[in-house]
């Protein structure tokens, strides 16, 4: 008799659990977390807000979490959203290696993670990674750079976050072209952390040691704007050519004004929409996704800037 009571109690628990699961999926909207490396960059604000808008358009609740370019903050964000019952994560990582552990925590909790723009160094962590073709985009920047300098001159490279694969993909694509021209000499390479103010400070310091540079290649447009500000303050904005990467609106305007030479146009809205759509399909039962989805980058310069204004 006692055994029968225990079985009956167990059955009640199972029925109650199943009912709660049905209630969650049947009446409550799935919740989508949008975890962004930093909102201190207008480009990432577009990525974050687009992801939220796309998720909401598909019928889901969505919330932005700002990691402030800090792996520890990112880890706290993941702990928070996992405990809060989010059902999918649209993720812009802070670190190609360090962010993997956070994705695996979400995976263990049954939460799919779709990376946007920034890549992690793992093929078995994220459900899918939607990424700009950074290398090819910077091959185009490199060609533009060589032509603008007529194959000769000294230049500085300001790279992004050292732990971000995009930093090295962009630098690698650029150097795959520029390094073939012995008349072009890189006199300094330093990180600006993808940050406008940091890049401005970096270039101000580098110009003290290298006052006669002819160009600056920056790993993103925020740093390109910081570099331009430093050159403007030094009275060299019309002498030193600046190149960026992202397709940010302020740099597009500077290209139109012929104050910055070129940038690589990324498409954050395309990456956000793809990630949100993949989450939607996951909720619908799909489980097989491509591990990496490349998104084309287009060169923007004075010749075609009117097409991007």
Derived from helix and strand composition plus strand pairing, the structural class reads alpha/beta
In helices, the fraction of residues equals: 40-55%
The ordered string of helix (H) and strand (E) elements is HEHEHEHEEHEHEHEHEHEHEE
* Radius of gyration computed on alpha carbons: 23 Å
Estimate what percentage of residues fall within beta strands.
Answer: 15-25%
Q: Counting H and I runs of at least 4 residues, what is the number of helices?
A: 10
Distance between the termini: 79 Å
Low-confidence stretches: 1-25
How can the largest sheet be summarized?
6 strands, parallel
Q: Provide the residue-averaged pLDDT.
A: 92
What would the principal axes of the Cα set say about the shape?
Answer: elongated
Please list the strands of the largest sheet in the order they lie side by side. Answer: 2-1-3-4-5-11
Number of strands: 12
Description:
The chain has 309 residues and is of the alpha/beta class. Helix content is 47%, strand content 19%. The strands form 3 sheets. It has a 6-stranded parallel beta sheet with strand order 2-1-3-4-5-11, with helices on both faces. Strands 7-6-8-9 form a 4-stranded parallel beta sheet, with helices on both faces. α2 links the parallel β1 and β2. α3 packs parallel to α4, α5 runs parallel beside α6 and α7 crosses α8. The protein is elongated, with a radius of gyration of 23 Å. The protein starts with a helix and ends in an 8-residue tail after the last strand. The N terminus is likely disordered.
